[in-house]
Write a structure and sequence with these properties.
It contains 11 helices and 9 strands. The protein has 378 residues and is mainly alpha-helical. It has a single domain (5-75, 112-204, 227-377), classed as di-copper center containing domain from catechol oxidase (Orthogonal Bundle). The strands form 4 sheets. The protein has a 3-stranded parallel β-sheet with strand order 2-1-9. A two-stranded antiparallel ribbon has the order 3-4. The chain binds copper (II) ion (2 copies). One copper (II) ion binds at residues 280, 284, 308.
Amino acid sequence: MGLVKKLQSLALLGVALQGLAFDFDFPQADIDSGRALQQLGETARDAALARLEASPSSTCTKESVRMRKEWRNIPGEERKAYVKAVECLMESPNVYPNVTGPKSMFDSFGVLHYYLTPYVHNSAYFLLFHRLYIWTYEEKLRTLCGYTGAFPYWEWGLDAGGVEKSPVFDGSETSMGSNGEYVENPGNPFFGRGTGGGCVKEGPFKNYTVNFGPNTSRTPLVPNPRCLKRDLNTQICAQWASLRNTTETIIESPDIALFQANLQGDYRWPEARKWGFAVHGGGHFSIGGDPGGDFYFSPLEPAFYLHHGQIDRMYFIWQNLDWENRQTMAGTITMMDMPPSRNGTLDDVLDIKPVGGSYTFRQLLDTVGGSPFCFVYE
Ligand code: CU
Ligand code: CU
């Protein structure tokens, strides 16, 4: 990088770190290699565990707290058990009445996301909604399907050298299934195309049937059975979801408004424009395909939950680097404030019945608060 840019980013770093509960001054090489992110992650985890030790609750203690892990740090047998549990969710009954396409509890999560999409992206609710959403999914894996292992996340930046080789997507029996078959396709006008595009060709979820969607259909909730398609895209991963972007998004975001804007590449904030599609879009479009590339139905792609695990991990790290000052919400209750709407508040209620429960957003701030959460990221 050029000297001017380097000076700029150093200056930004200096500003961002002032007033933080923890002080960091990372060399660029450590930011790029992931060492800095690892250190931030450990500091955040230790801070959360110290808080838990100081004030445990009846529903969350140091003994009962769960540790979420990066996919490749989970033993092979446990990864296989995770895949089995997801397959079990795909066989458990759908809980939405009056829809013909969704066939399973796994599908019900897709319906919920479809209904709430206009309110939970580029809005005040983005981070806390997705936190509750993936936790509820984890709970279903446990209560309906007996999963007892760690809930996984996917650190995209580790695969910026080749998403196809990722332990998440290499097609082995301990992966989440392979890339899609290479097929000729024009790609996306914004994202170009990856190295697949067709049906997942080997490994887990090769035989999974996507039951409904896409969002562009006039009747997205009626049956439309088809294969799971992926179009893995290393270029997108390297450009927008690198270890550097992930780390700098955390350390260059002094408040929640800017953090969520930087994470989503929300162009309404001038500071957020340099992130392009940002880590959120970068992770989604590193997978791409159908339904992975569908804004409304991306949760019908089983790897969605690993991607959003990493988004929630970033939020967890960011919060716990300055917990006292980072229990706030910003933004309105509609996507990009369209149509214009009021500000969201922590006393608003998030009701995700019939898939899950009903909580105030305030209850969702603390992952070790015990009402309902009790987890940290390794
Ligand atoms: Cu979403
Ligand atoms: Cu997303």
